Write a sequence for this structure.
C-alpha cells in the first residue's frame, strides 16, 4: 500500500458519520423532491389543460350572464376586458401554483447547505434577499396601481369602440 492510499484510508476512517449522514440525508431529500417535482410540476400539459378548462368555464359563465342581463345594463368595455385579460390570468394560475410546490423546500435546503459550507456569512445573503424582497414588493404595488389605471383606460376605449361599431351596424340596417 502506498502512502497516498494510506492517507485516503485514514481520511475515510476519520470522517464523522454525523456529517456524512446529514449529507446523505439531504441528498435523499433532493432526490425525493426532484422526483416529486418531475411527477407533478413538470406535467406542463396537464397544467395547461386545467387552466384552459377553467378559462373556458369562466368565459361560458360570462356569456350566460350577459345573455340573461338586459342590454342597457351591460358595460361592454368591462365585459370585453373580463373575457380577454382576466381569463388569461386565470389560465396561468395552475402553472404558478405548481412552481411554488417545491420552492419552499428548495430554499430551506439551499440555505442549510450554504450555512454548512460558508457558515455565518450565509445570514448576510439571506439579509440581502429579504431586502430585495421588500423592494420588489413596493415595485409590484406600484406596478399594480399603474395596471389598474391602464385597465380602466382600456375599458373606456373598448366601450367606445364597441358603441361606435354598434352605431355603424344600426346605420347600415
Amino acid at each position: 500500500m502506498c502512502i497516498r492510499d494510506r492517507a485516503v484510508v485514514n481520511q475515510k476512517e476519520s470522517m464523522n458519520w454525523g456529517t456524512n449522514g446529514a449529507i446523505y440525508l439531504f441528498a435523499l431529500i433532493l432526490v425525493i423532491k426532484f422526483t416529486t417535482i418531475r411527477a407533478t410540476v413538470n406535467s406542463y400539459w396537464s397544467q395547461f389543460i386545467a387552466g384552459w378548462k377553467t378559462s373556458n368555464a369562466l368565459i361560458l359563465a360570462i356569456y350566460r350572464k350577459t345573455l340573461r342581463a338586459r342590454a342597457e345594463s351591460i358595460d361592454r368595455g368591462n365585459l370585453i376586458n373580463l373575457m380577454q385579460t382576466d381569463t388569461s390570468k386565470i389560465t396561468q394560475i395552475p402553472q404558478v401554483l405548481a412552481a411554488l410546490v417545491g420552492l419552499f423546500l428548495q430554499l430551506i435546503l439551499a440555505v442549510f447547505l450554504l450555512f454548512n459550507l460558508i457558515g455565518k456569512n450565509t445570514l448576510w445573503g439571506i439579509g440581502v434577499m429579504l431586502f430585495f424582497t421588500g423592494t420588489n414588493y413596493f415595485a409590484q404595488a406600484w406596478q399594480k396601481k399603474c395596471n389598474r389605471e391602464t385597465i380602466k383606460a382600456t375599458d373606456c376605449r373598448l366601450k367606445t369602440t364597441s358603441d361606435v361599431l354598434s352605431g355603424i351596424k344600426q346605420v347600415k340596417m
